[in-house]
Structures are given as structure tokens and as C-alpha cells.
């Protein structure tokens, strides 16, 4: 055991005499576990996370173990794990879990896409022009600080009780955050990039499209990903408050299960929601990595695709409407090839 | 008022001059009446005060007056030296036309006879911070200015590749992103990106400030070689006295709070490698003179 120099620091040589000694192993484990900001191998991270889940389930199992009358928590309060998972087939088949999940996802995606399509351009303009930002400031401040739940009744009277209401609710809940996050991302781009572009002869429109927006995009995309998680939370709110019949969606399953007294289904849906959210988040993060290789490394396939598209667009533009700037510069670059002579 | 053809003029003026090592010291900067050649940059009593009318206004430079001649087929290499905070960068950014230094509070900044109105590609600038655009490859960074002018892609990429090789980067580097490059390589990209536009004036704000001494010397030699080719007037702000004496044809020494130009110096051109020139006694004499002058200024504040 004394042949392990990597773990052996000078001050600890005295302890190596009895490697099995409890006094030696406990601090060593602690020291290896609690490394200040140290890296963790992926398998360990997964293992530690799984341990947390196991502890939660273990606790759940303990408080609901035994015959119904002997439990800490009776079956009417909290069903046991086995009872809960036994109802999964009925949730899957009778309650159309997949279809309802997709219904919920569609609402979030549409509402959020609308918020992004409206919010990102406005945010970009706000980030570029302080006066525009000042104009939108009241709207974004109200939008970010209003309790969104309080908007539900209003959305019913404005957009009816159908799908439009839920989509618009997500839009209203998110758009202010999208605007201010995007504006912030643009404003965070250092002035030195602006100065550089200016001294290279870029015009304001070119600076916005070729410098500010591309530089801010990774951070914009990141905040969109985080906000998407928020939107997923809001859609539950919109689905839980409903008028009359089956509106569909995961929130609808929860509220109907509550009325029917099926706590098992509520618990299952509560477990499924984070899993769906996590899967979406990972999917978006993969997209993000692929879009911004300059930020995250890797091959950046999507980014290359975007670049190829931009190049094609540039060639098309030159082909179809040869704008005046191209001609005089061609002379200039001929002149610039002089040094090769 | 005489100048040998093509040489930076060792001008005799009315003000007192004396020789120090490989340089000639003028007690005050020349004015437009004292130069023979056409003028490329002129400052006329330029003052810049920030927060004017506010609770604590700050004057960065005060009554700065100087002229830089347009030496035919060459352009001068002008270094700006001085203690920190004396407004060296302010002078550069006023020539570039960059906010918030531009516009000056009073006085006039003239480039080729016309007041500076806005930044432009005719006055290229290399910054101390690494300002390569993170989302663009080296090649796309170098060709950014041409892209803004609407030069077709193949044409600008051909030119870009030529310049990438010219500043000493390898062909494999052209598709790399800035974060994959070292500090020296990033500054090479910045230089190529500026020179590809063939600016009339090149402004360099401590471009090698963050580089290690060895890289710095290589970059100095490279810069001199490139400058000979592009024939532009270079303004080079630096903290390093050796750098200024090696690179400069002319140097302005500034004092601080508020910044003014204290001395103008005409220095022998850098016609031999940095390593050799630095060993000469006359080089060291000039460096010593400047070092004393600047530390005197720093103590005086």
C-alpha cells in the first residue's frame, strides 16, 4: 500500500503505517469525495445522482410500507410505490399518456416559439438602441414582475377556452423574459468588438447582423433553453385551470385524477414531467452545442449548415442583384494583390 | 526644414534640439508651420474632458498639438509613450473617431486635411484586447472588412489566405476559431485583418502588451517588415520604452494629468532585427534618457 505516491502527500506519510486504520481511511475518503471544485467522472456523477433518487424512493417506501392500517401514511394520503407503479398501464392505455404529453408539448412549443419569434428581434433592437429599450422598458418590467397565474382569468375572456388561450398564455408569460434576456445578451457584448468592426469599415446594419447578433446568440440560446423549462411549468398552470370537458394535456390528467381520487396517476405524472423536461433540455443543449462550436467545441454540424446557407444566400444575392458596392471593390482587391508580385 | 528624400526628416526647427543616443530630441512638438511635407494627421489644441458640467469632470488630454507628415512612399512609424493614464489611447481613438473619446471637447483632429467625423476602414486599428470575432474562423475574421465592402467570397478568401500566410500563420490555422489560438496568433490575425484593407493610417493601442517578451520581439520584427510593405503611417501606443525606440521613426513623450505632449523625438529607423539593435550602446542611451524622463514625470504627479 505504500507504493501509491500519487495519493501520498508529504504531511501524511506518518499515517501510511496502518492503511486499514479507521482514522486513516475516513478522512481520506472525505478528502477524495469533497474536492474543492474538483472534476467528477461521469459515472460517479450518475451514481451519486442515482443514490439520491434511491434515498427518496426508500423514504417513500418506508412511510408507506406494510398493511394499509399499519402505515405511517395511509393509502388515501400517499399510495405506496408498488401501488403507484401498478397503475402505470391504465395511465398509459386508458388515459392516453403519450397523446396527452404531446398535446402539452405542442402547446408549450407553439406558445414559446411565438414568444421567441416576437421577443428575440425586439430584444436585439432593444440591445442595440437604448431609446428603443427605454420605450419597451415599461412593458418588459410589467411582464416580468406580474404574477402570471393572475393572468389566467383574463386570457379566458380574451382568447376563449380553447387551444389559443393556452398558447397565448405561454406567450404572455414568456415574451417579456425573452426580450430582456436577449437585450441583455446584446448589451453584454464588449465595446471592443464594436470598435473593431467600426475601424474595419462596418456599417451599423452590418455590425448588428455580423457582429452583435452572432456573438450574442450562444447566450440568447442558453437563456431560451432555461426559459423553455419555465414555460413548461406555466403550461401546467394553464392546464389545471379549465372550464368543462377534456382539454387534454398532462395538467388535465392531474386535475381529472384528483377529482376521481387517483393519487397514483398524479404521482406518476409528477414523475414523468421532470423526465420529459430533462429530455427536452438535453435535446436543446445538443442543438446548442452543434450550433455554437466556437463556444462548446466539437464538430458543430448545425453551425456549418448555417454557414453554408449564409454562403449560398450571399452567392444568390450577388447573382441576382449585383449591388453597386461590389464593382469598385473588385478594383481595390486587384490592387491589393500587388504584394504577391 | 530640410528632409532627405524618403527619410524621416531630422528637421532643424526653431525650438532647441539635441542628440541623445540614436535620437534627436525636440523640446516641443512641431506645428504645421514647421513641416515641409504634406500632413497626414494634425492635432490643433485638442482637449478632451469627460463629464463636463458633472460633479467630477476629468481632463484626459489638454491642448495637444502635433503634426505628422506624409512621408512619400513610406509613411512614418510614430510611437506614443508616456506614464499610464496620460491619454495615449485617447489620442489614438480620436484619430480613429471612436466614442466616447470622439468628438474632442475643443480643438480639431484633422486627417489628411479634413476633420475626423466617424470611424472608417482608412484608419485601421489593432487593440490590446483580443478582439477577434469568436464566431468566425481565422479566415473569416481576416476577411471581415472585405465582406463588409461586398467583395465576393472567393476573391476575399484568396486575399485572406495570402495575408494569413504573410503574418506567419499556417494554412491549417485558417479554419480555426479564435479560442483555439494563442495570444500572439490572435494578434497576428488582428494585424492581418487590419492590413488587408490597406489603411492609410494604422492605429495600434499596445497591441503586444499582453504577449511574453520573446513573442513580442518576433511580433515587432514582423510588424516592421509588414509596415515597409503597406507604406502606411503607424501610430503605436506602448508602455515599453525599448519597443518605442526600436519601432519608432518618431516618438511623442506625454506627461499626465492632464495629458500633454512634452517632447517630440526623431529616432533612427528600425533597419535591423530587434535583437541586434537592442545591444547597441546608442540604443541604450536613448532608452535610458526616456526612462529617466518618464519616471520623473511619474514621480512629479
Can you walk me through this structure?
The complex is a heterodimer of chains A (341) and B (301). Chain A contains 15 helices and no strands. With 341 residues, chain A is mostly helical. In chain A, helix 5 packs antiparallel against helix 6, helix 5 packs parallel to helix 8 (163-187) and helix 8 runs antiparallel to helix 10 (204-240). The model of chain A is unreliable at 13-23 and 324-341 (pLDDT under 50). Chain B is α/β, with parallel strands linked by helices and 301 residues long. Chain B has two domains: 17-131 and 199-300, P-loop containing nucleotide triphosphate hydrolases (Rossmann fold, 3-Layer(aba) Sandwich); 133-180, no CATH class. Chain B has an eight-stranded mixed β-sheet, with helices on both faces. In chain B, strand 3 and strand 4 (58-69) form a beta hairpin. Chain B is globular, with a radius of gyration of 19 Å. Residues 1-14 of chain B have low confidence and may be disordered. The interface between A and B is large, with 38 and 44 residues.
Relevant terms:
heterodimer, A: 341 residues, mainly alpha, MetI-like fold, 73% helix, globular, disordered C terminus, B: 301 residues, alpha/beta, Rossmann fold, 2 domains, 8-stranded mixed sheet, 4-stranded antiparallel sheet, 12 strands, 32% helix, 24% strand, disordered N terminus
